From TrEMBL, chain A:
InterPro entries: Fe3_Rdtase_TM_dom, MsrQ-like. HAMAP family: MsrQ. It is found in: Cell membrane; Membrane. Pfam families: Ferric_reduct (PF01794). The lineage of its organism: Bacteria, Pseudomonadati, Myxococcota, Myxococcia, Myxococcales. The keyword Membrane applies. This is Protein-methionine-sulfoxide reductase heme-binding subunit MsrQ. The gene is msrQ. It is a multi-pass membrane protein. It comes from Archangium gephyra.
UniProtKB/TrEMBL annotation, chain B:
GO terms for biological process: protein repair. The gene is msrP. This is Protein-methionine-sulfoxide reductase catalytic subunit MsrP. SUPFAM superfamilies: Oxidoreductase molybdopterin-binding domain. Part of the MsrPQ system that repairs oxidized cell envelope proteins containing methionine sulfoxide residues (Met-O), using respiratory chain electrons. Thus protects these proteins from oxidative-stress damage caused by reactive species of oxygen and chlorine. MsrPQ is essential for the maintenance of envelope integrity under bleach stress, rescuing a wide series of structurally unrelated cell envelope proteins from methionine oxidation. The catalytic subunit MsrP is non-stereospecific, being able to reduce both (R-) and (S-) diastereoisomers of methionine sulfoxide. Its cofactor is Mo-molybdopterin. Mo-molybdopterin binds at residues 91, 94-95, 149, 184, 232, 237, 248-250. It comes from Archangium gephyra. NCBIfam families: PRK05363.1 (NF003767). The lineage of its organism: Bacteria, Pseudomonadati, Myxococcota, Myxococcia, Myxococcales.
């Protein structure tokens, strides 16, 4: 069941997706981010990255479950918004928090699993962002492109691990995101199995002729 | 004779297709605005976690300046004090919520008077004393101390209080006393965070007796010339300026002298990350972040962390011969 074109949908999600950034930048400039503004920016950009990545990964399962096609049209935009916030999160850490002290940053990435995992998630998102254009899909061929973009699941899972390890106590919130990811994964697996069964049952009578 | 109303000019008539497109446009604009607002508000709701600073409720327990304020003691730092607002709205006090802004919002349920403190264990004069009586035993001193949180941020706070040593001498520790154990109030009605098993309630902390007797170790009843706000540990808290902030147990109801090292809350919860000694040490990293530098609240740039939080000259002797990597 195809959805109507809804020309407003993508621009609306883009504006809504960038709203927290504008809000954060304004509040930062006004000094309205409380006693530890850098911590606030770090926490919020990190959370936004995770939320938007999970949202982009929810598009396909949502289509499978509901039959709507409009979520698919948002997948790329949500993924790129997630990547944007993930990059800002890292830049906040590297520039504002650590003052670009390269030695400290490299030591953090190498020695502290919580940071290693977060950094790895960001690195995995880079090839996905680079290959996000339609031209790249054509150039790579859809199956190869699709295989590559399955890395998004790995990146989001690492994002959840990064979040779990960051929290000092009370794992409720990171585990909610983890739970949602598991559910989304399960829907994909179930759909893949259903398709395979449908294909093989369609082939059996053909062979028996 | 009736005149026919003038026909509008052809150029003035909106064509039907344009008329329909206009309706379509308005509808689209409405959907656009609605969707953008919903997405923006949703993301904001899920991700925006204020960490203090925007509640007017910090004065929920307005502090009157105590009558007796002594001149500054010999251990003061002359570094600029953190703003009162930051120090009272950016707090780790899990009994009132996990986010740093929550204690200032929620701590009004704590009733710091009447308040009783039990002093017992290996002492010759165990007692149960009313808070006002206890406070009247000692003149108040102002001490401007650096405070370093294990999370790598720091503040400078002018405390009002009295040395713990005076209190301990008054109750006369026996020869068996080696440690001092402190306990926070446990009352989920007054401390709503205790309804959740985030930590083992009540919060407990401890010091070795020589640390407790050190002249820097303070029992605080106020800060910034005022009564201690609830979120900062009213009515009585511990301040040990050369140790990470979590050692500074708040809202104390029991002080026990013990022969054995007492189990302490964060150490029991995660011994790999939070040691019993918790001395500020730039060379011993927390497993998840470096402790080599810190951010002073109110500043954007980090500054190097000093051994023993800058009090090495006064306290390093206490740890002579100890492996401070193993005993972190």
């Amino acid at each position: 069941m195809a959805s109507p074109p809804h020309p407003w949908l993508k621009p609306a999600v883009l504006v809504g997706g960038l709203y927290p950034l504008a809000h954060l930048a304004l509040a930062f400039a006004q000094g309205a981010l409380g006693a530890n503004p850098i911590e606030r920016v770090l926490n919020q950009t990190g959370l936004l990255a995770l939320i938007l990545l999970v949202a982009s990964l929810a598009c396909t399962p949502l289509k499978v479950v509901s039959g709507w096609t409009w979520p698919i049209r948002l997948r790329k935009l949500l993924g790129l918004l997630g990547f944007t916030y993930a990059s800002l999160h890292f830049l906040t850490y590297a520039v504002l928090d650590q003052g670009l002290a390269l030695g400290v940053i490299l030591e953090d990435i190498a020695k502290r699993p919580f940071i290693t995992v977060g950094f790895l998630a960001l690195v995995l998102l880079v090839p996905l962002a680079v290959t996000s254009t339609n031209r790249m899909v054509r150039r790579m061929g859809f199956p190869a492109w699709q295989r590559l973009h399955r890395l998004a699941y790995v990146a989001a899972s690492l994002g959840v691990v990064h979040f779990v390890w960051r929290v000092k106590k009370d794992l409720t919130e990171p585990l909610i995101y983890g739970g949602v990811l598991v559910l989304l994964f399960a829907i994909r697996v179930a759909e893949a199995l259903r398709k395979r069964r449908a294909r093989s049952s369609a082939q059996v009578p053909a062979r028996s002729v | 004779m009736r005149q026919k109303p003038p026909e509008p000019l052809g150029s003035e008539i909106t064509s039907e297709s344009l008329y329909l497109r206009r309706r379509e446009f308005i509808k689209s604009a409405a959907f656009f605005t609605g969707t953008a607002a919903a997405v923006g508000a949703g993301l904001q709701l899920l991700s925006n976690r204020p960490t203090g600073g925007d509640g007017p409720s910090l004065l929920a327990t307005p502090g009157e300046a105590p009558k007796v304020v002594r001149p500054r003691g010999p251990y003061d730092t002359d570094e600029r004090a953190t703003s009162y607002e930051d120090a009272t709205t950016y707090n780790n006090f899990y009994e009132f919520g996990l986010d740093k802004g929550e204690p200032a919002e929620n701590a009004h349920t704590l009733k710091p008077r009447p308040w009783t403190v039990v002093i017992d264990g290996e002492v010759n004069k165990p007692q149960r004393v009313d808070m006002d009586t206890l406070q009247s035993w000692f003149p108040l001193e102002e001490r401007v101390y650096r405070m370093r949180c294990v999370e790598a941020w720091s503040m400078v706070i002018p405390w009002l209080g009295f040395p713990l040593a005076g209190l301990l001498r008054r109750v006369e520790p026996t020869s068996k006393a080696k440690y001092v154990a402190f306990t926070t109030l446990k009352d989920p009605e007054q401390m709503p965070g205790q309804k959740y098993p985030v930590l083992d309630w009540p919060y407990v902390e401890g010091l070795r007796l020589d640390e407790a007797l050190h002249p820097l170790t303070l029992m605080a009843v106020g800060m910034y010339g005022r009564v201690l706000p609830n979120q900062n540990g009213a009515p009585l808290r511990l301040v040990v300026p050369w140790k990470y902030g979590f050692k500074g147990i708040k809202s104390i109801v029991r002080i026990s002298l013990t022969e054995k090292q007492p189990p302490t809350t964060w150490n029991r919860s995660n011994p790999r990350e939070y040691g019993f000694f918790a001395n500020v040490n730039p060379e011993v990293a927390h497993p998840r972040w470096s402790q080599a530098s810190e951010r002073r609240i109110g500043e954007l740039r980090r500054r190097p962390t000093l051994p023993f939080n800058g009090y090495a000259e006064q306290v390093a002797d206490l740890y002579k011969g100890m492996d401070l990597r193993g005993n972190f």
